Amino acid sequence: MINWSLALEINADLGECPRWHAGENRLYWVDIQACVLHRLDPATGRDEVRQFDAPVGCFAFVSGGGLLLGMKDGFALLREWAGEPRPFGDQFLADEPDLRLNDGRTDPAGRFWAGSVNMAKSAHDATLYRLDHDGSISTIEGGMLTCNGAAFDGTGKRFYHTDTPTHALRCYDVDADAGVLRNRRIVHQFPVGRGRPDGGSVDAEGCYWSALFDGGRVVRLSPAGEIVDTVDLPVSRPTMIAFGGEDLRTAYVTTARTGLSEETLAREPLAGSVFRFDVQVPGLPEHPFVVSGDN
Fold first, then answer.
1. Is residue 294 part of a domain?
2. For residue 61, which phi and psi values (nearest 5 degrees)?
3. In the annotation, is 134 catalytic?
4. Which end of the chain is more exposed for a tag (fewer CB within 10 A), N or C?
5. Active-site hit among 31, 103, 163, 198
6. How many distinct structural domains can be found in the chain?
7. Residues 157-164, mean pLDDT to the nearest whole number
8. Per-residue b/e over 226-250, b at no fewer than 16 CB within 10 Å?
9. Could you list the residue range(s) of the whole structural domain that residue 85 is in?
């Protein structure tokens, strides 16, 4: 049995996208609905906050320093913590009021793969995109409501993501040279009513960890799609898992309070907090996004 502990007790509305910065020994994460980026020092408990005018759905560290932000209308570069985000590439969602960027991951080649979400659930028009080094954006796959759970395995040859409302975890073979996905298949179909697959990460053995929103737990799936570990949490809405610490053997899980009734919140006083637990198999380091012209 794996036991959890608190990394940070906080009432985040929609905590998401934990990412470990190895050079800083800090856990970055976002509260999407509050338009806030957090930088947590787990050793001291100090949590720095950066406020924005628009939501940050996902982000990546940049090889030349700073962050790539996936925001409401498109991508932006934040070169310094206290700086201002500068649009990077076409702001392709600016005229789409129901859509924003939601979840993403950098591949070993330094490209960022990010999915959108239809916040109003008004159409199946959420899409997975690939952002290249020069800011050009390619459409990879559409027809979704909530594109989520993006993660590459350690070889960079397998990619996972989910359209969360379908309860299905998808896997693809990656043509790294062409930057395309092939051979889509469902590796696990989660049952309705026991939690929906939200954010995820792959560990060093190629197992995919998924946070089950409204399921109160995270699960570890083998490459074949079998659930091999389960970690129960004291909150119903875990949103994403990532790995940190010097040996990448500390799992961090963000959670949400959004949409919960007052009665549920009374039963879940830790909803919105960041949790952690130890794992035997380490996670994978985050690949930095590479901007054309950066050294």
1. no
2. -75, 145
3. no
4. C
5. 198
6. 1
7. 98
8. eeebebebebbbbbbbbbbbeebbb
9. 5-278
